Amino acid sequence: MPVLRIAGAAMLATLVVTGCASAGATPSIAIASAYVPQPTTPGTTVAYLEIRNNGPADKLVSAQTSVGGKVQLRAPAGRHAGVMTMHTVPDIPIAPNAMTRLNPISYHLLITGAGAMHDGKDIMLRLTFANAVTVTIIAMVTDPQSGGSSYFLN
């Protein structure tokens, strides 16, 4: 029985990650490695993922979560006193025919005011692009302090 659940979850993840496209069309955007570190402050965390663009240049213009709250698109603003600072941006550029990695020292998603998120829970992220179809993906909530996945451990 557990094997069937795992196979079903894998099939659902594959369908969700590729987004919706018209019959016979290949989606230009694919998402991989999406995860959300368990919040250390209730309701506030970040999301990291990889966006593969097999088409022309695009932009990630917004994101939403299945646990509510607000999602801000963040980018590096520079270093101040040796610490990398971030600021909110209206979009994240997605290069053509390339992989864009959202990670701690580059572009990423800041989630605030969200509902409960704990290690091992799956949440949904809905990503809206300027040109490509909207993509809904599964992101696992991880706890790097207890050995769960993180950008630095993968």
Query: So what's the oligomer here?
Result: single chain
Helix fraction bin: 10-25%
- Structural class by secondary-structure content: mainly beta
> pLDDT average, as an integer?
83
Instruction: Give a short account of the largest sheet.
Output: 10 strands, mixed
Q: List segments where confidence is low: pLDDT < 50 over at least 5 consecutive residues.
A: 1-24, 150-154
User: What shape does the CA trace take?
Assistant: globular
The total of beta strands comes to 10
The number of helical segments is 1
What's a quick, concise take on this entry?
It is globular and about 40 Å long.
Task: Provide an overview of this structure.
The protein has 154 residues and is mainly β. Helices cover 11% and strands 47% of the residues. The protein contains one helix and ten strands. The protein has one helix at residues 2-18, and strands spanning 29-37, 45-53, 58-65, 70-80, 83-88, 92-94, 98-102, 108-112, 122-129, 135-142. Strands 1, 2, 3, 4, 5, 6, 7, 8, 9 and 10 form a ten-stranded mixed β-sheet that branches. Strand 9 (122-129) and strand 10 form a beta hairpin. The longest helix has 17 residues, at 2-18. The model is unreliable at 1-24 and 150-154 (pLDDT under 50).
